[in-house]
Amino acid sequence: MALVVFLKGVNVGGHRRLRPRALAKELRHLEVVSLGAAGTFIVGKALPEAALRAEIQGRVPFEVEMMICSGAELLRLASADPFEGQAGERDIVPFVGVLASPGQFPATLPLSLPAQGDWCLKLLGCRGRFVLGLYRRQMKAITYLGQLERVAGAPMTVRNWNTILAIAKALRGRTKPGG
């Protein structure tokens, strides 16, 4: 099964700029496909995680944190539809925080930020290395998203639920019947 790589903090606000498609092209010997501008990749060739990290870091001009998980983990998450029944309001965005490694999430969930008044960010649950939440389309949501690592107590990067669904679709397209 393929690996999925999430780079943390690239192409944010004009800092730590990276061209994901160009990086994927450099890594074509690993059957790498880029999804979007945030540094999300599917790696088709089987190799040890440490070797994959070295291959990517050797081609990125700055130190980069990577969250790497199996494609099977992402497919299980997507097929479970964890946001079913959540408010479908246009200003509410479902997201997934990808922790650096699986483990217990220390906070009691659900958790809303801010704790008082109308929430801007709401953490709903944790499934292995994936923290599930919602945020409102407001400028202050960025501040609360930035606090998630502190709440989690571990390195984490965030992707929109639509990105996770796009990864799952790409992974399903890579699997061959009977194989």
If you had to describe this structure to a student in words, what would you say it looks like?
The protein has 179 residues and is an alpha+beta fold. It folds into 2 domains: 3-74 and 167-174, SP0830-like domains (Alpha-Beta Plaits); 84-160, Alpha-Beta Plaits. It contains 6 helices and 9 strands, in the order βαββαβαββββααβα. The strands form 2 sheets. It has a 5-stranded antiparallel sheet. The chain has a 4-stranded antiparallel sheet with strand order 2-3-1-4, sandwiched between helices. Helix 3 packs across helix 6 (161-174). The longest helix is centred in the C-terminal third of the chain and has 14 residues, at 161-174. The model has no long low-confidence stretch (mean pLDDT 89).
